[in-house]
Amino acid sequence: MAPVSASSTAAAILHCKCPRCHQGDLFIHHSHYHLSGLLDMPDTCPVCGRDIQIEPGFYLGAMWVSYPIVMLLLIVSLLVSYLVFRLDLLLSFGIAAGLLLAVLPLILRYSRVLFLYLFARD
Ligand SMILES: [Zn+2]
């Protein structure tokens, strides 16, 4: 197998690919907004056979990845809408909540991908 470069690792994370082969899909459904099967993952990589379901409850740790992402989005959204655009505080919170709801599927998926890359790389 060819050596893995940093750019291919970044591209594999962006496209939710296996941390070992960078080719197998980590999620069964390709669309990030397929809400009924949003977090469905195969047990093993369909290309290289790497175990993706590391252990029961492994992906609970992905909450520690999603939390700072959510906080960053919330704070930036509030600062921009309240301080830059001088919107009402309640409206700013509404915009931040709407933004978080809109990107929640992305946050959930990428927090799992990042957690897998951080703690289960080969
Ligand atoms: Zn693989």
Please state roughly what percent of the residues sit in beta strands, choosing from under 5%, 5-15%, 15-25%, 25-35%, 35-45% or over 45%. under 5%
Calculate the terminal CA-CA distance, rounded to whole Å: 13 Å
Helix share bin: 40-55%
- Element string (H = helix, E = strand): HHH
Q: Describe the sheet with the most strands.
A: none
Task: Provide the number of structural domains.
Answer: 1
Number of helices: 3
Structural class: mainly alpha
Ligand set: zinc ion
- Using only C-alpha atoms, the radius of gyration works out to 17 Å
Low-confidence runs (pLDDT<50, min 5 residues)? none
Number of strand elements: 0
Mean pLDDT: 93
| Overall form | elongated
Model description:
This protein has 122 residues and is mainly alpha-helical. It has one domain. It is built from three helices and no strands. The protein has helices spanning 6-14, 63-84, 89-119. Helix 2 (63-84) runs antiparallel to helix 3. The longest helix has 31 residues, at 89-119. It binds zinc ion (ZN). Residues 18, 20-21, 24, 45, 47-48, 50 line the site of zinc ion. Zinc ion (ZN) is lined by residues 18, 20-21, 24, 45, 47-48, 50.
